[in-house]
Amino acid sequence: MTRLLVLTELFLPTKGGTAVWAAEVYKRLGGKGIHIVTADVAGAAGVDATHPNTIHRLSLKRVAWLRPESLAMYGRFFFTSLGLALTHRFEAVHAFRALPEGLVAWGVARLTFRPVVIYAHGEELTSWGDGAKFKAMRLVLRHADRVIANSDHTRDTLLGMGVEPARITLIYPGVDVSVFRPGLDTAGLRESLGIGADERLLFSVGRLSRRKGFDQVIRAVGILRAEGIPVRYVIAGIGDDADYLDALIQSLRLQDVVHRIGPVGEADLPRWLNACDAFAMPNREVNGDNEGFGMVFIEAAACGKPSLAGLAGGTGSAVLHAETGLRVDGVSVDAVADGLRRLLTQQALTCEWGQRALQRVEREFSWERVAEKTRQLNPTATRT
Question: Is the pTM higher than 0.85?
């Protein structure tokens, strides 16, 4: 029986790629012998009741009057994890980020003579500047027995931080191919927004933040509509940029063309990805914040759809340029418009790229494939 101690602040029902990755991979690696220490959040009981691993929930909230605010969180994380490690014969300790989980995992692993594996996702490596937080993260990553990089870009960033190449393993995130797949029923989706059968549909989903590039797609859609291309655009998700995007849509007089539909349920997301002609997220770097990989590109690919991605960050591992979609300069509206024009007007090529994307997912990106790569890690503890 596989025995692992897994530390992750983010776990289902919390939304996001990290939470999904943690839940999907470790349930495929083993059962109750895998212990997951994570945050106590609303709706957790329902997840824990059906998840095959052993889940330990903690209050991981920061305390405003403490200095540092995260002191209590680190304490709870550390002592709970250390207690589990002292009473169970774990093979290794896994942490889903360098901070806070990785620092705790490294301490627990060294005290209990177990190897430690830490995940690196990309955006955290470039968005924390060069202060104390970054230095702590770099220290932890340099002294981990194994670091999992989620993209080629993340691996290169780790090398630049001084992490030894032999300690880095490249494992891409995955997708549930039984959920995200072609041929799903899309009845009523386009019709609910008055999108005609002869109109081309772009779709985006994700946290509404500037680096995602949804604003650039809106501007590009305005350009394409002025050229007579019958395109409509649907944006799903919530976030800080909601009012900004609404104002942009109104200022460009695209209220009947661009539709912001808010959060999408788990059952409807793969249906929207089936209903669209192409997925668009021309991400760009904003103040050091960029896209580490972009799991949603793989979800679109699993539905047989090509994607438009930006050049920033690690999206080159998710979208192969001119093979499974296009990568363009997300800073340039003209570049985004040119890419979308190509995807929307060259339908034979778009279909071919979509099929290649689907085949690549089936070959490389199922969660079963990700779990098998994780199973093969077999790190050896070092005293560093």
Answer: yes
Query: Is there a domain that residue 181 lies in?
Result: no
DSSP code for 38: E
What tens digit of pLDDT does each residue of 28-52 get?
Answer: 999 999 999 999 999 999 999 999 9
Q: Are residues 160 and 202 in the same domain?
A: no
**Nearest 5 degrees, angle CA 121-CA 122-CA 127?**
125
In the sheet where 307-310 sits, what is the strand order?
258-262, 231-236, 200-205, 278-281, 307-310, 325-328
In the structure encoding, which two tokens stand for residue 256, read together? 């009947």
- Separation in Å, CA 174 to CA 37, 46, 207, 380: 22, 23, 19, 25
Supply the angle between the helices 333-345 and 347-364 in degrees, to the nearest 10.
Answer: 100
Q: Report the amino acid identity of residue 194.
A: G
Q: CATH number of the domain that 223 lies in?
A: 3.40.50.2000
Residue 93 CB partners (closer than 8 Å, separation 6+)? 4, 5, 6, 7, 81, 85, 105, 108, 109, 112, 114, 115, 116, 117
Q: Does one domain contain both 222 and 358?
A: yes
